[in-house]
Every structure is written in C-alpha cells, then in structure tokens.
Design a protein that fits this description.
- With 474 residues, the protein is of the alpha/beta class.
- The chain folds into two domains: 2-266 and 303-370, TIM Barrel, CATH 3.20.20; 377-471, Immunoglobulin-like (Sandwich), CATH 2.60.40.
- The chain has twelve helices and 20 strands.
- The chain has a nine-stranded mixed β-sheet. It has a six-stranded antiparallel β-sheet with strand order 12-14-15-20-17-18, with no helix packed on it.
- Helix 3 runs parallel beside helix 4 (106-121) and helix 10 runs parallel beside helix 12 (356-370).
- The longest helix has 21 residues, at 2-22.
- Mean pLDDT is 94; it is low at 5-21.
C-alpha cells in the first residue's frame, strides 16, 4: 500500500512537471492580450536577467529563480549571447565551437536547458534573447557576426531545441534597426525560430528607448506582440501611455509589453557620466574599493527608485499593455564582487533581490489577477474634468461588463469620476500599491459625478494610489 502511494505521488509530480514544461502561450488574431493554451489570460510580470547565462552558476541561478517565483514573477528575460561569439558561461563553456554559429556547443546549451527547466518547474516562462544586437550590427569591416544564413540556421536550432518548452523569443537586444542588412538578419533569425519550433513559441523584438518594435516589424506575421522600451532617460515616462494610444490605431491589433522600463537603482541618464574626468572626478572619487558607488551625488539626476518602477508598471497596464518587465541595475548584469560592471551599482546582485520595487511587483500581480487582462478596456471618459497628457496624467479602465472601474493616480491627486459608467450601485476602495492592501471607503451610486481624494499629500513622492469602484453583486 505504501509503495502504491509513493508511485501515485511520483506520477502526480511528473505530470505536473510535464504540464509546466509544455505550457504554451498564444495570441489570437486581432487580440490585444496573450493567453495560455487553455484560453486563460496571461499576466506578464517579468524580471530582467540579461547576464544570467554568462555570469551565474547553477546554484546561484536556482537561488535567483526561487526568489523571483516567491515574488510572483512570470517571465525571466535573459540573453544567450550577451557578448561576442567567444562568450562562455560560468563553467567556461563557449556558446559556439570555434566561434562558428553553425556549431552550437552542446555543453553550453545543456546549461541553458537546465535553467529553462528550473524556470519551468517554478511556473515561469523564459523570455530568451538569442543574441544581443551587437552581433547583428556591422563591424568596422562592414560585416556583422551573423549573416542572414547563419542567423536562420541558429534560429532554427534554437526553435527546434526549445519548441516544447515555456520559452518566448525576443529579438533585438536594445537596438533599433538602422540598415536593410540588419532587418534581413533579424527577419532570417525569426523565420528560423518559426521553422524550428513549428510556430510553437511567441516572438517579439526589443528596441532601444523610447521606441517600439512596431516601427519595423508590426506587419510581419512572425511578430506575435509588440515590445517597447521606456528606458532610463527621465522620470515620469509619459511615452508609455502615448505608445498605448498608438497601438490602438494599428492594424492588425496586437498585444504589447514594456520589456525595459527604468531599472530600480540605476542612475538617470547613466551613460552621460561614464567619463569621470569630464566632470572633474576620478573613478575612485565615485566608486569605492568594494566596487560599488560611494558618491551618489555624482549623478545629478538621481536614481530610479521603487516609486518610479511601480508607476511605470501601472501606467503600462492602465494604457493597454499586457506585460511589464521589472529591472534592477545590479541584477540585470548579475554584478558580483571583483567582477566588471557595465553600469556602476549601489549593491551586488544578490543584495538587490529584495529591493522594494521588486516586492511591489507582487501587488501589481495581485491587482491584475483580481481584474485579469482582457476583462477591461481603457476609458478615459470616466474622468470628469481636465486630464492633460503630462506627468500627472490619470489613467482609467472600465470592466467590459461595467462591473468595475479602476483609476491609477500616480501623484495621489484627487479625481472626479463619472459614476454612470458603473452598471450598478457599489463600493469604493483604495488599493495601496506599496502594500497591496485594499481599504473600503464607502458606497457609491451609479450616477452623477463624485470627487475622490486619496490618502496622503497630493504630489508627495511615492504617494500613488489605485481607486477601485466595484458594482454590488447581484
């Protein structure tokens, strides 16, 4: 009897792992959402781990993935080739043999398999970049590392290897398309991925900021959804909701994801300050002996914090986006003591795992699990009065059945709401994006206009709120 029970639970465990590994995402024609193969709306809460495959070993990777699972992340974005064709992983295994893209190194991809499977075990998807864009951009001799032929072959290899895994393919790697040759290489890689996977995995393209994939690829049948990067060049990225308006005007309709917003703990306009001498400083004046930033004042525009990344997340979803990828400056580059950083950091990667912005993603997930993708639409007309397209813009969505209205108030500003958009009388509540708590504030009638004033001081840094208006149950 005992052995039968053990066998039963072993089979259940195996079946659950098979289900996790074989989970598939789909985008239906003229649909603005991503769905699972079971027809359920998929909520993309991503994390940025570009250097995962090159910098972390197995133990570190599992530690990282477990942390992200606990926080409710659903997608891990990472790059297979972050450097050149000689890139190796933490075990010294190069991605290609002899730097030849037609000779994938089995040892390297066995490690990729391991990470993909560990991610799947935790119910998450991998958003894999086959390569960073530097391998598609021409070198000084006028040639790129990839040709159209080798890009297609590499794409077909990847597509076939991971066609039954929970993998989303993301081309681009922080680069816009500047030449016809670049376009043709990316298109060849996309077609290789499609052929290898028999169309089993979604594909998108990751541009620089503030740019969208639709500028080049919207009409390509292989582009499953659009991707924007709102980027790191300013606070209050109004381009997010502006792109949301643009996507509503495109044909065919496709979902969109903000795959690189401002990263928590990264300096605003960081690339302006790489040359220390230009600002009368030496490196050691800014960076401490431990390799971390010791003089934060060197960066005059400050750093992006939890409020900034949280606001960009809510602006994304309240503007029609179906996905948002959080990022932390130390984690995307997996910065460790004694290693080289790409952008100066405030912490090492493992010390950044529990930063407040990452924790806030749990609350984003909570709200949009309660009000799933596809169950609502944008309706700015519920806002009564002026609502300018600036950094104080209020965003509003209404349930498709008018059973609820949600408004995001990024500065804790008061708002007057047209309650006739609510199907029945109901209740009003405040959702706290910092804590994930919901506090009922009273009842409402589904007629006329009513003023709502959030807790705290309007305009105070970090005082954002979501107003929930919910019709009473029948």
């Amino acid at each position: 009897m005992k052995s039968n029970k053990i066998l039963f639970f072993t089979l259940i465990s195996l079946l659950s792992n098979v289900a996790a590994y074989s989970q598939k995402l789909v985008v239906k024609p003229q649909s603005a959402i991503i769905e699972t193969s079971e027809g359920k709306p998929f909520l993309w809460i991503g994390d940025t781990a570009w250097d995962l495959f090159s910098d972390l070993n197995k133990e570190e990777s599992v530690f990282y993935l477990e942390n992200r699972k606990e926080k409710g992340f659903t997608v891990i974005q990472a790059t297979l080739i972050m450097g050149g064709f000689n890139q190796s992983n933490a075990y010294g295994d190069a991605v290609f043999l002899d730097k030849d893209p037609s000779k994938p190194n089995e040892k390297f991809f066995e490690y990729v398999d391991y990470i993909v499977n560990e991610t799947a075990k935790r119910g998450m998807f991998m958003g894999l970049l086959p390569t960073w864009a530097n391998n598609v951009v021409a070198r000084d001799d006028g040639k790129a590392n990839f040709s159209t032929e080798s890009a297609f072959t590499y794409g077909r290899f990847l597509g076939n290897r991971y066609k039954n895994k929970p993998v989303i393919w993301i081309l681009g790697g922080d680069r816009n398309v500047h030449t016809d040759d670049e376009y043709l290489i990316w298109e060849a890689m996309a077609k290789g991925l499609q052929e290898g996977s028999s169309g089993n995995n979604l594909i998108s393209y990751h541009p620089t900021a503030p740019i969208s994939s639709h500028f080049w690829f919207h009409n390509e049948p292989w582009l499953s959804f659009n991707t924007i990067q709102s980027g790191h060049f300013k606070k209050f990225q109004t381009e997010i909701y502006e792109f949301g308006m643009v996507f509503q005007q495109l044909d065919p309709i496709k979902p969109w994801v903000n795959s690189e917003p401002a990263y928590e703990d990264i300096p605003v306009l960081f690339w302006h300050y790489f040359d220390y001498e230009k600002f009368g400083k030496k490196k050691e004046d800014v960076i401490g002996e431990d390799g971390l930033i010791k003089d934060k004042s060197f960066f005059p525009d400050g750093f992006f914090d939890d409020y900034d990344v949280r606001m960009e997340a809510y602006w994304t979803f309240f503007s029609g986006g179906v996905g948002y990828t959080y990022g932390n400056n130390a984690i995307w580059q997996m910065y460790k003591p004694g290693t080289r950083y790409h952008v100066p950091c405030l912490t090492f990667w493992d010390g950044a795992l529990d930063r407040p912005g990452a924790d806030d993603m749990k609350h984003v997930s909570k709200l949009f699990t309660r009000y799933p993708m596809g169950s609502f639409h944008i309706d700015q007309s519920v806002i009564y009065g002026t609502n300018f397209l600036n950094e104080s813009n209020i965003r509003a969505v209404v349930g498709n059945d008018q059973s609820y209205i949600l408004l995001y108030l990024n500065k804790g500003q008061e708002v007057r709401v047209n309650l006739s958009k609510l199907i029945r009388n109901g209740t009003a509540s405040w959702f706290d994006p910092r804590e994930g708590s919901i506090e009922k504030i009273g009842t409402v009638e589904n007629k006329g206009f009513q003023l709502f004033d959030p807790p705290g001081e309007a305009g105070e840094h970090g005082n954002d709120w979501v107003l929930i208006l919910e019709a009473a149950q029948m």
